[in-house]
Amino acid sequence: MDATLLTETGISIDDLAIGTMKMIKVDGHRVCLVRTSEGLHAIDHACPHEGYGLTQGELDGDLVTCAWHNWKFRVTDGVCVQGEEAVRVHDVEVADDGAVRVTVNRPDPATLRPQLLASLRSGIRHDYTGQVARDVVRLLQADSNPGELIWEAIAHGAPRAEFGWGHSIASATDCLSMVDLYEGDQRALPIVQGIMGIAENERDRPVNSLPAPASSADATAGAFRSAVEGERTAEAQSYVLGAIERGDGADELRPWFTAVVGDHHLSYGHGAIYTQKAFELLDMIGWDRASTVLPYLVPTLVYGTREDKLPYMRPFMKSLSGIDLMELAAREPLDGWSDDGTLLAALLGDQRTAPVDATLAALRSGAGVDGVLDVVVQAVSERMLRYDHAGEFDFADDFGWLDITHGLTYAHAVRWHHRQAVERGSGALPDLLRLVFFTAFLAQWTGRHEWHTRVGERHAVEPLAADLVTYGNELQRQSLLDGTTAFIVHAHAVKMSRAASLEALHSGSSLALDATARFIEAPKLERFVAATVERSIDFLNGRTQRD
Length: 547
Ligand code: FES
Hints:
Elements: E1 7-12, E2 20-26, E3 29-36, E4 39-44, E5 58-60, E6 63-65, E7 72-74, E8 80-82, E9 89-94, E10 99-103, H1 109-126, H2 129-141, H3 146-157, H4 167-177, H5 188-202, H6 221-229, H7 233-245, H8 250-262, H9 270-285, H10 290-293, H11 298-303, H12 314-321, H13 325-329, H14 342-348, H15 354-364, H16 368-386, H17 401-423, H18 429-445, H19 448-452, H20 468-479, H21 487-507, H22 511-521, H23 529-540
Antiparallel strand pairs: 1-10, 2-3, 3-4, 4-9, 5-6, 6-7, 7-8, 9-10
The structure holds FE2/S2 (inorganic) cluster.
């Protein structure tokens, strides 16, 4: 606590009638002096909600009501009895001659941290943006680590996610990665965006329990893979917990997850994307948080839609089943390989099995995983630049912007899985190759609206900057500026801007950034009520067509 001595205020107790308030300045700090029938009190003058002066409000007994939005504070201890946040109380003394002296309490930020963290947890629990924002700024000023602050939301949200965690925690991971784009107090923006996505999505949900860890002997990659495949969620979680308990680290457990997300084309690639985010997150906040982050990801992988089992993927899967992935995995990539246009044409065309043949030919000719993914990113970016967003508001068609963005973030995630496998010597290449084929499928399949509408004009984008680093950083900052109302759209803008920035640096091309810039600025469906009503009417009247 700052040892400021009692300061003469120039006020006499006789200047203040019982039941009145007065604003004074003490050492430059605005203080609200309050005289009740019980005594004299001093609290912060600025209401913690939006900073208006409390003397503009009303005093009733020992309660001050802020005039602006009705928050109420007890003057004896500063507690907020209605609203989100307490006011600070200052020491006040009346000398024998009636002179009022005040000591402004300026607690050392470090000693305040436990109290601020408790307040931040309360803000997260109640989904109060203002409280979270103020506490994050204060905690940053008290030298808190951004990862520590995001962790408060993850510790709250991951155990509460209904079917395993998803976009909110993945997006918080991207937000945490963006903190370095800001300085000082401005670092609060990505942190608060990340936290609020979780607070909003997991509010008022019960905590899901976890099973006991499996024994060390039972906790194997094979047992885990079999449990996920058999949809035995608790059993799969117990293996992860058992492995962590025996001391396995990221390098041991990453291949477990890469294997299961490569077993299926899972939820438009979300299995691969969320796994990438989980391990990136743990790299940033520490492996000691793995026993929360990883087991609560498992239900997401178990319950995710196995798209490869659905009728629309049958022709593709039939073609894929004839390919010897082991043989393909043994081929070395060729230095300087580039697509002669065949693969790109297949991905942008309308033949459902063409991507299998073209990807196979590319891999056989030395493209390697990176070479194919480069073309996938190019194709998806082209699709985004020529997407006719009039279709976004066609309620009979549930295809839209978000579907296309997955093509890019999926390819980026698979590149990450592959790089981890190559650089850390873990992960099975055949599993990774299956994922590569799935990204090729998705790149082509997200063009399906073009098959019944038309290929739109290629939209011209004015680059935000000439150099790719600045361009990508600017897009990431834009994605955090509330340009969208629906959390799910916001999360896709964040995810896409992050992935596109890294893809642009990999390829040296601005195409993925241009595509993201267009997505961020384009009209998008933000609420899904009207479309859902329309589709429900069609469904209940037997008019829905699905293939
Ligand atoms: S400023 Fe006081 S309640 Fe809003």
